[in-house]
Amino acid sequence: MSRYEKVCLIRADGGRAIRRILDRIGDKWALLVIATLHEQRMRFTHLQQRVPGISQRMLSLTLRNLERDGLVSRTSYPEVPPRVEYELTPMGRTLIEPAVALAEWAVEHDPDIGRSQRQYDSRQT
Amino acid sequence: MSRYEKVCLIRADGGRAIRRILDRIGDKWALLVIATLHEQRMRFTHLQQRVPGISQRMLSLTLRNLERDGLVSRTSYPEVPPRVEYELTPMGRTLIEPAVALAEWAVEHDPDIGRSQRQYDSRQT
DNA sequence: CTGGATCCAGTACGATACTG
DNA sequence: CAGTATCGTACTGGATCCAG
Fold this sequence. Notes:
Chains A, B: GO terms for molecular function: DNA binding. Chain A is mainly α. Chain A is 67% helix and 11% strand.
């Protein structure tokens, strides 16, 4: 596949496929949860501790969405007290690779973006 | 850099770097505009025609944000009627690669996600 | 032609409180 | 422990109208 054809993937179907995945990992917590879950399967509370700043509500919502998309699987054990563990599905794992590619770009260019923003803002004054 | 270290890039700085770029390309139109602009520099109206469904307002906002981030450059020609052209900056071009990686993943797994969602939803009934 | 200004609906997110 | 329910806020994106 040529580079040009690859770029067309972004625009494929009016960008609907890429939109769907961006709507998921674009939200505030999903990618962070995925990256955290990549280390190991984890219980709800442990996960909340490992993702600093996330509220119960948002962790709950995020996990439910990820489960619905088939990126995370949920296993609840019939015990008292209740124990529920979350882990990435095989498909969830494959998402790590492109996500890391984006993260590398982000970390590498973050200073440039910051500089550009400050320049832009100072010109507006 | 090991795979584990790479995954940590996502969580680096509490995920701030990846968040900044996701806040940008995660919005509804930015990535579509970038992909469209990858083909060639383009005027405002032409761009609007090439990105189906985008409103004037959103194109304008999107372009200004991208310009502020240093991903797109704006050149206005002192003519009547006014002519303004947009093109990707060198940094903007480098974003194409990880974006395409994500788009490939999205297109490849879109059917699986759709299936998973339908399954999940039918179980809730 | 290239946008800026305004109004409005939907929703993402946070804080807090409550429950099996 | 692992969530759900409720409320309030702030922001996003769309439609429309206006201006240099």
